[in-house]
Records
---
Amino acid sequence: MKPYIRQMPAGWWLKRPSYLLFMLRELSSVFVGGYVVLFLMMIRRLAQGPAEYEAFMAALRSPLAILFHVVALAFALLHTITWFNLTPKAMAVWRGEERLPPAMMIVPNYVGWVVVSGVIAWVVLGG
Amino acid sequence: MANKTIRLEILRYDPEKDSAPHFQSYEAPYHEEWVVLDAINHIKDQIDGTLTYRWSCRMGVCGSCGMMINGTPKLSCSAFLRDYYPNPVRVEPLANFPILRDLVVQLDDFMHKLVSIQPWIVRKDGEKPVQEGEYLQTPAQHAKYKDFSMCINCMLCYAACPAYGLEPEFLGPAAIALAQRYNLDSRDEGRDSRQEVVSAHDGIWKCTFVGECSVVCPKHVDPAGAIQQAKLASTIDWYKSLLWPWGSK
Amino acid sequence: MQIHEYDVVIVGGGGAGLRAAIQLGEAYPKLRVAVVSKVYPMRSHTVAAEGGAAAVIKSNDSLDHHAYDTVSGSDWLGDQDVIEAFVNEAPAEMIRMDHWGCPWSREPDGHVAVRPFGGMTIERTWFAADKSGFHMLHTLFQTALKFQATVWHNEWFATKLLVDAGRCQGITAIELLTGQLHTVLAKAVILCTGGAGRLYPFTTNGAIKTADGMALAYRAGVALKDMEFVQYHPTGLPGSGILITEGARGEGGILTNKDGYRYLQDYGLGPADPWPRLRAMELGPRDRLSQAFMQEDAKGKTIPGPFGTVVHLDLRHLGEAKINKKLPFVRELSKNYAGIDPVYEPIPVRPVLHYCMGGIDTDIHGATTVPGLFAAGECACVSLNGANRLGSNSLTELLVFGRRVADAAAQFALEHPKLAKDKLGAQANDEQERIAAQFIRKSGGPSGKTERVATLRTEMNLIMEEATGIYRDGPTLEASLPKIAALKERYRNIALDDRTLSFNTELISAIELGFMLEVAEAGLHSAFRRQESRGSHQRTDFPKRDDQNFLRHSMAYRTGDAPRMDYKDVVITRWPPKERVYGK
C-alpha cells in the first residue's frame, strides 16, 4: 500500500497560459541583463576613444544586433509592464477599511516612466 | 423524453492493486443545476461504489472536495456541469500531492506546515484575563487581515503552484497567508516568532510570484499578495536590523 | 491490532470537540488527550454555520433576558438549570474566542458588534460577517494546535464504544488510510460527533452528519432524548438545501409570498411594522416561521419553482453596501447556487432540515448514564434547546458545554485510573470480526439478496420526511414504524462494491447508514408517542401543547426490537410554563 507520486512534466509551463507568461517574464530578465552588458560595453568603447567607439556602433547596425535589440525591447517592455502591474500586490496601503485601488499605485509608475523617458530623450536628442 | 448524460473521465488508483493511476469513464446524468460533485456522488451511489473521494458541505466552505477538473484545481461542489456540457469532464486528484486512493490525496505535508507557522494568537505576556473583556479592534484594523482569514484549507493553491510542485519543501501559499493573517492581526504579537519559518529559504523566498495560487483560490484570499507583502516586510526588517542593530525587535 | 491508551479521548473534531481539547490542554496538561475525527477537523460541519453566537455583552441586555428567551424559545421543554448555567457562562466563552483570534465583526469603536436574531428580545448575537461558524471552527482548531501533547487521529472512524462492567473505557476506530481497526482505550470518552441531518433528504447538513455518536451511545445503553424535535430552518435554497443564514433577517430581510405580502403577520408574529423589530415577524422563532410556510403552502400562496414551492427572502432594501459588508457569503451562495443576486432580486427559499434538538441524554456537566461516557454539542441533549432552538444559541453551546464536558471527563479520568485492558481487547477483536464478516467478506444477505447503501438511505430519507416533517399526524407516524423496522432488516443484506481496505469510504457509509437507521427509529417512536404539539413537533391530531402530560423529555432506549420509551421531567427553576407569545 503506497501513495503514488506524480512527477511534474518537463513541459509544465506549457499547460496554462499564465504559466507561459510567467516563464516569459522570467526570461525577460535575461534580455534586460543582456542589454545592460551591451550598454556597459558601449561605455567602455567610448572611453577607449573614437575609433573603437565607431567600430562598436558599426557592429550594432548588423542585422543580428538589430534583431537582438528588437527582441530585447519587447522583453524589456514585458518586464516593465508586468512589474508595474504586480507592485500593488506587495504593497497594501490602507485608507480606513478600504485598500487603495491598485490603479493608484500602478499609474504613478507609468507616469514616472514616461517622464523619465521624456527627460532622457530630450537630453540624448540634444534638446 | 431523452435523458441527457455527460461523460466523466476519472483518474483511479487502488494502492493495493495498481502500479500506476489510470482513467475510467462513466456516463452520469446531466442536470442543469448539478455540480461535478453531484455527478460523482451519483456514480458512487448507483454505478460504482469503489469510487473514492472526500466531500462534505457542498457549499464551498469545508474545503474537502478539491480536485483537478479539466486540468484546473477546483472545488467539485462549485464546478457546474453546465460549464462543460456536452464535452466530457476530466477529473483527477489535486496536483502536487501524493495520491492515496482515487481522488484522495495525502495532506500530511500541509498539516505539518500549518503547525510550523504557529497559527494562533501569540501574546508576549500571556492571554488577557476574561474579566477585562475583548481586545478592541477597529473595523480598519480588522480589514488588514480579513482576506487572509478566509482560507478554507482546500489546497487548490498548492495544486496550482509550480514552485511547490517542483520543490515540495516550499512552505506554500496557504501556510504563508495564514502566517500573515496572524502577523497582521492587531491582537497578535507573534510576528518575530514566526519569522524563522516564514522568512526561511523554504519560506517566502521560494515563491517566484507565478501568481496562479490567487487565481484559483475560491475564497479570494490572495495568498500571492500575502507572500509578496511578507517579502517586503521581511526585507524592510533586514535593512532595519542592519542600520539600527541596537533597535528592539 | 494496534492498541492505544489515553486518559481522555474526544470523538469528533468540530466546535465542541475542539473546545474540549483546548480546555484539557490548558487546565489538565498532564493528561494524555487524543482527538479521533473521521474528517480533518477543519471539515467539521461547524464550518457551515453562518449567523453568529449569542452571549450577553451589551449594557442594555441581561442574563435573565437571554435565559427567558431561550426558555420560551424551547416552548418550555428546555431544562432551566441548564439554561441558567449556559447564559451565565456564555459571555466569558465568547470573550475567550476573541482572545484566541476569532475575527468578530466590530463596532466603529472596536468593541464586538451584535446583531438581532430570531426569538431574542435584545440583540446579543456576536458574528463574524456571515461566516461565524467557519471563523469559530478555524480559530478553535488552530488554537488547539498550540497544545503539542494532543494526539490527532484524523480520518479515524469510530465504530463502537468499549464498555466493561458498565463503564465506558474506550472505542474502536477504523483508520481510513489503511482500513485497520484500532483499539483506543481511555479512562473517559467524550462524544462530540454532531447531529443527524442526513436522516432527511433535504438538509443544510453536510455528508458527515450521520448520527454517529448518537448511535454509539444508544447501542451502549444511553437514552436518546427528545429525538422527535428536529429543526427546519426557514430559509434554505431550494434543490440543494444550502443554508441562508437567519442573519439575513437579522439585518432586516423580509419574507414575502406570491403576492409580495409579508405573510408572517397572519400567524401571530405581527404587526408587520415597525421593522426590523425583535421577536416579531421575520425575527420570530424558527419553528413558527417554518410552520407558517407550510400553512401558506396549503393555501396555495407560495411560489412554484423547479424544486418545489418557495417564498421570497427579500434583501434588496438593504442595499449593496450593507449586503457586501454584513452578508457577503449570502450573496455568493445565492449567485452560485440559486442563480440570483440578492442585491437585485429576492432569494427563493423554503424550510430545510437543519438541526437536532434531541440527542444523547446527558446531565448538566455532559455526563451520560454510562460512567466514563460524556457528550457535548449537537449530538448531546443536555437539554438547552428543548422543543425548538433559538438561532445563535448552538454555536455558543459548543463552547460552554465543550468546556464543561472536558472538566467532567478530566475529573472522571483522574478518579478512575484503571482500565480492564484484557476484556476490552477481546471486545475489540470481536468488533473487527463483525465488520469483516458483515461488510468486507459478505456478498449479500442470507438469502442472497443484495442492497445498495444509497437505496436504503433514500428510502429512509423519504420515511423521515413524510412522517417527521414540519406537521405530523398519528396515522402517518404509526405507518412509519414498521417501515423503518423493515429497512433495518434489509440492511442485513448490504453488499459493498468496494472490498479494498485502503480508504474504503463505501464501508464507512454503510456503517453510517446502520447508525442512522437506529437513530431514525428512535425519532419516529418518540414522535409517535408524543401526543401534543410543542415547538418543532406539531401534531395535526393533537394541536395543543399539553403540559399536564408532556412537560417531560422523551427517552428512547434501545432494545432488540422497537425502542422502549420512557419520560423524564423537565427541570423548571424560575420560569413556570406560560403561553409562548411573539410579535407585538
---
Amino acid sequence: MSIKILTVDDSKTIRLIVAKAFKTYDCMVLEADNGVVGLAVASREKPDIILLDYTMPVMDGFEVLARLRSDPALKATPVIMLTAEAGRETVVKIAKLGVRDYLIKPFKGELLVERVSRVVTLKSKTDAVEKVRRYDDPISILVVDDKPAIASQIRTALEGTPWKVTSADQPGQALDMCMEQGVDLVLASLSLPNDGAYMLFQNLRSYSNTASIPVLGLSVKTAASEQTRAQQAGFSSIITKPIAPEELKFKVCRALRLETSYKYFQQRESWLALTLPKDVNQAVLDEVSKRLSDQLAGTVEAGGNKLIVDLSQSETVTLTTVELVLSAIQICSKLAIRYAIVGSEAVLSQCRAYEETQSWMFAKSADEALALLK
Amino acid sequence: MRNLPLSRLQTRQVFPSGEPCKLNTNLMSKQTEQIEAWTRQAVPEVLRAMASMELTSVPPAPFPLDADGQIIGSVGFTGEATGIIYLYAGMSFAKVITGNMLGIEPSEVEPGEMVNDAIGELSNMVVGYVKSRLCDTGLNCTLTIPSVVRGQQLSVEGSSSVARRILGFHNCEHQLVAEILVKES
C-alpha cells in the first residue's frame, strides 16, 4: 500500500524537491500551496504524514497544525515542520506544537527521506513490485479471540495452505505480536470484551509499522449491526461464523492482494489453459474474470491462438461456470482465439442443459482439444 | 519592492566596470559585521545543500549581467534588527541554480515562475539563516515574504541612513552578489 505524503509549502520549488526526493519510493506525494488548501487535501486524502512549511501566506504552519490537532480524523497524523528559521526560540516553539520532527531549510533530499522514514515505513518502488505475494507464499495470520476453539477452527479451515496461524486472546497481546513478529493479517473477534477488536484496530492504525496490516472481523452471521460497525470503522472484511474455508481463503487473498491466478491459468507454447476447480464459487469467478482479459492478451502477444477451458475437475456445472466460460469466449472472438472445452461426459451433458453452450466444441482431453483446433 | 523602506530600485548598474562601489562606511557596526559574516556563510551553505553547487567568496564584482537579463531575490527582516538582503544573479546563472535544485537541465528550466520561485526560496533560506542567528543573540525579528524582481540593468540604492555591504560569490564563470542593507540603531 502506497504511503501518502502531503507537502504543504508555498514554494513550488520546495514541493518539486520533496516530490523528487520520494520519486524512487512507493509513495504518493500530494501537494498544497498554502495552509487552507493543505487542510482540505489532508481532510480528503488522509495522508500518512504531512510535511508542513512554517512560514506561508494565507495560513501559516502554526495555524495549520492547530487545526489539524483539533480535527479528530487528522489529529494523529504525524507532521514534520520545515522552516528556514533555525533560531533556538523558533525551534522550541515548533517542538511545543507537537510536531513529530522538524527540518531546517536548506536541506538535502536524502535528509528529508531519512527523517520521514523514521515516522513511516518507506519502501522502494522495486521492493513494492517484488513483494507481490502469491497464494502459496508463507503468510502469517494472527487470530484474536478469547475462545481458543476459534483459532483451532481457522487452522483447520486453512489446512493445505502454507499459511501460519497464531493466536492471542487479548488485544494488548495481539498488538505486541504485530509489533514484534511480522504479522501479515489479523482476524479479530468483534465480540471481544470492551470493544477490544476496535481498540486493537485503532492501535494498529496508529503505528507506521502496523498501519497497513489488514484486519478482518470475526462475527456470528446474525450480528448484522456489529458487522456494519466494523466495516464503518475500516475493517478490511468480515468473516462470519461458522467459518466457510473457501470464503475465508478468498477474503484473506483479497485483503493481502495475493496473486492466485496461476492456480487457474497456464500459458503453454501456443495456447492458454484455463483450469476451473471443482467448486466455481464467487471467489473463483472474481479472480478468473479479473485476469481473463490480460491472460488471453498475453497468449496472443506470445504468438498463441488457442484457449482450452478444462472443466474435468468439475463435478457440477452451474450457471456461474457457464457464464464464466461465455465471457472467456467473448474475449476470444475479439482476439481471434479459437477455443475448446475439456470435460467428462457428465460435464458435457450438464453443459448441454444451457442453450448458450450449443456451439461449444468439447473434447475429453487437452490433446484431443488441440487436435480439434488444428 | 515598493513596500520595502530601505531602498529604491534604479535602472542603472550599481557597480559598473571600473567604478568603485560606494559603501556607507560611517554606519558600520558590529551588528552589520555579524550579519555580513553570517551572509557570507549562508550563501554557499544554502547553494551547496539545495543546488549541490560550490560557491567561493570573491571581492565584490560588477553586477551580474547577461544577455537574458537579471534577477534579484530579496527578503527583509524587521524587529530588533531591521534590514534587507538582496541576491543578484544573471538570468543564465539563475537557470543553472534552478536546474540544479530541481535536478533538470538549465535548458529545461522555464524562465518565468520556476526561476522566480527558486530564487525567492533561496533568498528566504539565506535570510532565514541570518535571522535565526540574530534571534539567538537576543535580537528578535520577523521575516518579510520573499520578493523577486527581474529586468535589465536593475540596481538597488540604499538610503544614507543604512549600512550597506556587498559580497561577491563565484561559481565557474558565474557571479552571484549579495547586498546587505542594515538599519543601524
